C-alpha cells in the first residue's frame, strides 16, 4: 500500500497536470477531457513499463471513483439547471432519459448476446455501462450556435437523468450477475424500486436541508457546507442505508436545491455557492479523467480479434439505439406536442455527439474488481468498454466540429450577419471619435494619431462594404430579431432585480423562465409566437389551478393565497420591466434594426403592458388593500438598494470608516428582512362574512342565518373560468358575494354582479342548465347543494317567494 505522502504528492501533481493541459487544449482546439485522456493513457503506459511507485499510489478503486467523485459531478450539474423549465419538459426528458437507457441497453445487450457466447445478463450489464453519456461537447456546441434554450435544457436534463437511470440499471444487473438469480420481471421491478427509492431519499433530505438554511442567515460557509453534506449523505444513505440508487438521490437533491434552495439564501451567497460547486466540479472532472485514463493500459491488456469483432457489433448497436430514440421516439413526441421539434441536422449532431467518458470507465472498473464476476465477463467488460470510450472520444469527439462545419450549423443566420456588421460599424465609429480624446489625454503625437485613425477608417469602410453586399433583412426579420433581443434584455433585467434584492428568487425564477419562452417562441414563430407566449404568461399556471382546486374541494386557502400573492408580485415586476423595455426599444433598437422595427416592437410591448395593467386591475378590484401594501414593499426594497449604494459610495470615498459602514449595514440588513417578509393575503372566504354581503339574506334573523352558514361552501373563481356549463345537470346554485359573471343566453349575454344569485332554475325545474356562466373577474361565491337549497326554501316562505319571482323573470328571458 502506498504511503500517504506519496498519494498526496500524486494528487497534487495530477491537479497541476489539469491546469497545465488547459493551454494545450486551447492551442489544439480540443476538449480538455480529451487532452487529459491522452496524457493519462500515455502516463499509464509509462508507469506500467517502469513500475514506478507513484503509479500504485494513484491506482484508485472503482468505489473511490463512484463515492468520492460522482456525487460532486452530479450535484454540480443539477444545481445549475433551470428547474422551472425542466418541470415544464419533465415528460420528454423522462422519456428521453429512462426510455432511451432501456432501449440502448436492450438493443446493445441482445445484439452482443446474438454474436457471442456470453450470457444475456452479462451483455445487458455491458450495455448499461455504455449507456451513460457525456453531453458536455454537445451542450457547449448548442450554446455556440444559439439554439433554442429549451433544446439545450432537454439535452442537459436528459443527460443528467440518463446517468442516473443507467447506473441504477447497472446496479440491478450487477446483482443478478453476481448472485445468479432473478429474471426480466425482477430486473424491471428492481430498477423501478431503485429509481423511485432514490428519488424519495434525495427529495426528503434536500427538503430538510433547505429548511435548515433559514437557521443560518448570513453564514455563507455553513450554507455551502449544507449542500456538500446533502450531496454525499444522499448518495450514502441511498446506496448503503436503503439499497436504492444513490445517483438518483444526488440528482434529485441537487434539483430541489436549484429550485428551492436559492430562495432560502441571499443572491450573493447563491453565487458563491454555485462558484464553489463549479470549482469542486472542475477538480473532480479533471481528476476522474486522469485517474481513469491511467487504468486504460491495464484494461486493454490481451485484446484479441474476437474482441475487435464484438467492438464493431457494440458500435453499430449503440449507434442504432441512439438513432432509434432521436429519429423515432423524439419525432413521435414532437408530433403529439410533448417535445419541441428538432431539425434533422441537430439530431445528427446529437447522434454523433453521444460521447462516453470517465463514468463508463469507473463502472467497468467496478465489474473488473468484483470477486464474484467470472473472469471472461471481466475481460469482456474491461476491453469493450475501454475501447468504446476511447473511440467515442477520439473519433466522434474529433470529428464533431468538422461535422458541424459541413452541415453549416455554425454559420450565422442572415439577420445575425446583418447585426454583426452593424455592431462592427457602430463600434468602430465610436472608437474613432474617442481616439481623439484619448490622444489628447496621453499627449500622443499627431503622426501616431493619424496612423491609427487611418487604420480604423479602413476597417470602417470594409465593414460598410460587407454590410451593403450582405443580405438586407426584411421588416419581418428585423422585428423577429428585435423581439429576440428584447426577450434577452428582459432576462437580464430580471436577474438584475434579483441581485439587487428587489425581487425574491422564487418570483425571478418564474419570470426568467417565461422570458426564455418568449425568446424561443420569437425565434421559431416570430411576432405571432412572441405574443402567444405573452398571453400564456398572464394565464393561470397549473400550480395556481391546483391550489384553487384544493380550496374548492377541501377548503384549503393557504396555497391559493400564496399563489395570488405571487401573481400580484409577478405582475408588478412585469409592469416595471415592460416600461424599461419600451425605453430600451426607443433608444437602442433603431440604431441596430431601424426605426420601423423599433416602432413595431413598441406596439407589441404596449399591448403586453395593457394586458398586464388589466390583470393588475382585476386583482386590485378584489384585493385592493393587499395590492397597495405590495407596491409599498416593492418601492421600499428599491429605496433600501439606493441607501445601500450610497453607503458603499461613502466608504469608497473614505468619507466614513469601515466600522461605521459595517454598523450601517447591520441596520440595513434588519430592514431588508422586514421588507422581504410579504404580508399574508386574506382571501376573505369566510362563509359568515360573505353571507352578510348578500341582499338575498338581508332581513333574516341572526339565528336563522347561523343555521344557514354550514350549508354554504365558499369558492374562489378566476377570470375566464366556466362556472356552469350549458346542458349539464344542475346540482348546485351560487350566490355571488363579489366579482362579476356573464350568462351566455340565446337572447344575448347578461351580466350579474355582487349580490346576485344564479343556477337556481335547473334546481327548480329539474331541467338541464340553460346557459354557460363564465367569470369576468375574480369572484367569491357561496355554493349550496340542491338538497340544502330545497330545505332552505321549505323553511322560509319569503325566500321561496323571492326565488320564484326571480326564476319567473329569468324563464321569460330565456
From TrEMBL:
InterPro entries membership: Cation/H_exchanger_CPA1, Cation/H_exchanger_TM, cNMP-bd_CS, cNMP-bd_dom, cNMP-bd_dom_sf, RmlC-like_jellyroll
Cyclic nucleotide-binding domain residues: 696-810
Entries under Gene3D superfamilies matching the protein: 6.10.140.1330, Jelly Rolls
Molecular function, one GO term: sodium:proton antiporter activity
CDD domains: CAP_ED
PROSITE patterns to which the protein is assigned, alphabetical: CNMP_BINDING_1, CNMP_BINDING_2, CNMP_BINDING_3
Annotated membrane topology: Multi-pass membrane protein
SMART domains associated with the record: cNMP (SM00100)
Superkingdom assignment: Bacteria
UniProt KW keywords: Cell membrane, Ion transport, Membrane, Sodium, Sodium transport, Transmembrane, Transmembrane helix, Transport
PANTHER family (UniProt xref): SODIUM/HYDROGEN EXCHANGER, SODIUM_HYDROGEN EXCHANGER 7
Protein name: Cation:proton antiporter
The organism of origin for this protein: Candidatus Accumulibacter proximus
Organism taxonomic ancestry: Bacteria, Pseudomonadati, Pseudomonadota, Betaproteobacteria, Candidatus Accumulibacter
